[in-house]
Amino acid sequence: MTTNTAKIIAKDIDMRFEDKHLFSATKLVFEQNRVIHLQGDNGCGKTTLMKLLAGFYQPTKGAIYAEGFGVAPWWRSKSITGKALYLHQHPYLFEGNVLYNLTYPLRFLTADKEQLKARTEQAIDKAQLRHLLTQAASSLSGGEKQRLAIARAWIIQPKLLMLDEPTSNMDKHSQHLVLQMITDLKQQGTGMLISSHQTCMLTKVCDYAWLVNDKTITTDNVSTLKEVEQTQVELSASLHVSVG
Ligand SMILES: Nc1ncnc2c1ncn2[C@@H]1O[C@H](COP(=O)(O)OP(=O)(O)OP(=O)(O)O)[C@@H](O)[C@H]1O
User: Fold this and answer.
1) Considering the domain boundaries, does residue 31 fall inside one?
2) Quick one: which atom of ligand 1 is closest to the CA of 197?
3) For the chain, which end, N or C, has fewer CB atoms within 10 Å of the first or last residue's CB respectively?
4) What predicted TM-score, i.e. pTM, was given to this entire model?
């Protein structure tokens, strides 16, 4: 049964590059109102999974499809491309200054222009980009580029957003700014998939975890994981007491 919640579903997928097997997964549901931490060691396939969900790659086996996105033209009614916004850890930016980069995608949106303008002003302040507005985007530092890309996503307010290692170039201050924007998006119902091989400030907003381990992707509720960790801590403490 289909619902109005926008989602991308991966069913019985298997992904390999020639003879290199990356991962398999039985069922993954990436949907609005859920924030997922995608975990796994370097090279396990986190970026590849995001590119599959963005429609840039096809799985070797299995199906990836979208539900709840409204009617698309018949020639792309089955395509998932463009449904979830993917932010690479080295974000793609247009030639031009910071303001141009923030405002360029807005012409393709159907939302009220005045609202978009107001939202852009808010994003500039939230990401602390005002002093950089006339600077060439290519000359920004790695952390500033990521703040710009996330501010642009914040304005667009997509139904689904994937952030690939978003904190890799960011200091604590930038992480705080981005945390605020991500928390806003979460409250506004954007579904997010945040990849990070270790926990960081941003993964605190995640309610679910997808773990790529041993070439298999498993899913879990973060509260369950926390309970397991807590049980392990308590068990280890009780062992200390009984041994000591
Ligand atoms: N287009 C491609 N063709 C062949 N191999 C690829 C391709 N893209 C990625 N790989 C390989 O697949 C593996 C997984 O890469 P991927 O970038 O998805 O990992 P990751 O978990 O995101 O890593 P990291 O945490 O280091 O960013 C790597 O060994 C990589 O070299």
Assistant:
1) yes
2) 25
3) N
4) 0.87
Strands of the 216-221 sheet, one edge to the other: 61-67, 7-17, 20-31, 216-221, 208-213, 35-39, 191-195, 160-164, 85-87
Judgement on whether residues 151 and 64 belong to the same structural domain of the protein: no
pLDDT at res. 244: 46
Overall size of the chain counted in residues:
244
Cβ neighbours of residue 111 closer than 8 Å, sequence gap 6 or more: none
When comparing pLDDT for 186 and 242, which is higher?
186
Q: Mutate which of 14, 17, 42, 52 to test ligand 1's pocket (most atoms within 8 Å of Cβ)?
A: 17
Residue 51 lies in a domain: yes
Residue-number span of the structural domain to which 119 is assigned = 94-156
**How many domains is the chain partitioned into structurally?**
2
Return the percentage of the chain with pLDDT > 70, whole number: 86
Residues 120 and 187 in one domain: no
The pLDDT assigned to 109 comes to: 83
Whole-number Å distance, alpha carbon 45 to ligand 1 midpoint, is 5
44 alpha carbon to ligand 1 midpoint, in Å? 7
The upper half-sphere exposure of residue 10, i.e. CA atoms within 13 Å in the direction of its Cβ, equals 25
- 65 within domain boundaries: yes
Which pLDDT tens digit goes with each residue over 130-170?
A: 999 999 999 999 999 999 999 999 999 999 999 999 888 88
